[in-house]
Amino acid sequence: MYKNYLDLVIRAALEAGAEELRIYNLPPSEQEVELKADHSPLTLADRHAHDIICQHLASTPFPILSEEGSKLPHEERVQWEAYWCVDPLDGTKEFVKHSGEFSVNIALMVPQDGVGESGERQWVPTLGVVFFPATGVLYYTAGDVAYRALVLDGTDITRIEPLPQRNDQRPYTVVASVSHMNAETEAYIDALRQEHPDLCLIQAGSSLKICRVAEGSADLYPRLGPTCEWDTAAAHAVVRAAGGDIVSHIDGLTLRYNKADLLNPYFIVKP
Predict the structure, then answer these.
(1) How far is residue 262 from each of residues 39, 150, 215, 220, measured CA to CA in Å?
(2) Going by C-beta distance under 8 Å and a sequence separation of 6 or more, which residues neighbour residue 51?
(3) What's the pTM value of the predicted model, to 2 decimals?
(4) CA atoms within 13 A on the CB side of 168
(5) How far apart are CA 246 and CA 195, in angstroms?
(6) Can you list the positions of beta strands (E) in 67-120?
(7) What is the predicted pLDDT for the residue at 166?
C-alpha cells in the first residue's frame, strides 16, 4: 500500500524544490536568513518548502516529523502506524553559500515486526525521495528498487535508470561533508588510504553524499559528526533499495529511527 504514495511524494518534492529555487535566485537580502538555536541557518526557503510538503502530505493518514515542524513527545510518536520524516531543505549552509548542493528529503517510515536489542520498536525508511532543485537530479524508491532521474522544467521526469550504476575502473572513492569536515573524519580517511593508496576524496553537501554511494559513484561516506534523523531518512531508503546501508560507526548496526533523541550516532554509508 505504501508504494501508492510515491507519485504524491515526488510531486511534493518537485513543488517544494521549485519554490526553493525561486528563493535561491533572489538577492541574499530577500532570502530571510536567520540562525536557529543551534546556530544552523534557516531561510525563507526552508519555511516555504515545509509548508508546501505538509500541504501535500496532509491528504495521507500519517503524521509528519519535519525539521521545521513541532517535535512531538516520544511517547506519542512510538504509537504511530507510520509517519513521514521530512527535511524540507537539507543543506541550508550550501543554499546560503550558493553551491547548489541542497535537497528536498521526504521518507515514509514504517515499523518492523518485533523489537530490537534495545527493546524498542524499530523503524525502517521504506519510501524515499531526494530531489536536488539546482541540478534537477531526483533519487527515489518505493522500497524495492532505487532510481535516479532528471527533472526538466520542474515537472518532466526523464532519463530514469535503476541504481546502482557501478564503475569498477575508477579509484576507490570516499565522499565527505564540505561544511562539516573535522579531525575525526580526516583521521578515518587517512587510515583508509593505507588500504587504498589511490583513494579519491570528494567533498559534497547535503544528502548528495549518501546518494553517491547509492548510485555507485562512491564507495564510502563516513559521517563522524552530528546529524538528525531527517538528514538521513530519505536517502537511507534509497541506499537500502540500491543494496547498501547506513550503519553506526560504533557497533555496525543499521541506523535506528523515531528514537527519544532524534540525533543520529556517527555513521558510515556503504554499498
Answers:
(1) 18, 32, 27, 24
(2) none
(3) 0.94
(4) 0
(5) 21
(6) 83-90, 103-115
(7) 81
